[in-house]
Amino acid sequence: MVTGIIYTPEYQNHQNYPEQPDRVLKTIEYFQHSGLKDFILPASYDERYILSVHTGEYLEKVKETEGIDETDNVYANSLLSAYGSLTAGELLISGAIDNAFVLNRPPGHHTYADRGGGFCYLNNAAILAKFLQEHGKRKIMIIDWDAHHGNGTESVFYEDSSILYTSIHQSPLYPGTGKVTDTGAGDGEGFTINIPVPARTGHDTYRKIFEKIIIPAGRVFSPDAVIISAGQDSHLGDPLTDLNLRTGSYHVMTRMILEKISTQVISVLEGGYNIENLSAANYAIVCALRGEENPFYIKKQKEPKSAGKALGKAISIAKSYGWI
Ligand SMILES: [Zn+2]
């Protein structure tokens, strides 16, 4: 299994605490200490790929956004982040790699076609989905396990039946969107699956969500490729959120996707603000992508009763659309 890890030290240039350079720097050090040495630099792409998702007017606005010091050109850094996901897409299409982990920042899933938010400027996952579609992978499933709802990605594809957008996120929490009853509109009716879960939801409930909703829906949809919007702020101990996933949970979820939905998987970094946990969780994802065993033990824990209720609601809605 050839897993491409897309990274450039330039991903440390952008400053936006707590969405900080250490998020990728410490991860790369963790990878190197674990024996991973080969990283792929992002290539450059035509602006039309960015414009496949974002309006020209919005791009002009991002170009005018200034960073907090002169080394931080927000537009250039956001573009480089999007290029990371496009590079993974190009290499997957060419067959040079089997799957990929994109260690990029700034993240993207809160960005709409015409506005950013929540540390995000360009929607890396959405831009990648459009790129894959243009290169023959017509049906794309996006699995967003960031603790925050990917309101931007949902909005871009809300009326699109060629993209199945699924999100498991803490509720209530920023940005306040992603109700279980928000299921898409027009041609995209049913092609958005939102699974909001309460604080302290952990590994067992996520595993059930995968077994009962994500995997069956993925098999019905049968995508040509899967994009993981991999926000590891759903990990226990994240300073911005209150979910309780364990480091090993990210290996379990990634492996389930690979084994039961599609081998064509690109994982794109979103959130994750406890630097140590983020580094280890990123490593867990890469181990699964490389076909290696889970190096992390998953400790059992108590979960709130309301987590089961949230799961039940999401199941009944997914059933009504024929996903399960
Ligand atoms: Zn997040």
Sequence-ordered SSE layout with sheet pairings:
Elements: E1 3-6, H1 22-33, H2 47-51, H3 56-64, H4 74-94, E2 99-102, H5 124-134, E3 140-144, H6 151-156, E4 163-170, E5 192-197, H7 203-221, E6 225-230, H8 247-260, E7 265-269, H9 275-289, H10 305-320
Parallel strand pairs: 1-2, 2-7, 3-4, 3-6, 4-5, 6-7
Helix pairs in contact: 1-9, 4-5, 7-8, 7-10, 8-9
This protein binds zinc ion.
Order of helices and strands: EHHHHEHEHEEHEHEHH
What is the CATH class?
Answer: Alpha Beta
**Quantity of strands, as a count:** 7
Shape: globular
Bound molecules: zinc ion
Helix content: 25-40%
Q: SS-based structural class?
A: alpha/beta
Beta content comes to 5-15%
Overall CATH architecture:
3-Layer(aba) Sandwich
CATH topology-level fold name? Arginase, Chain A
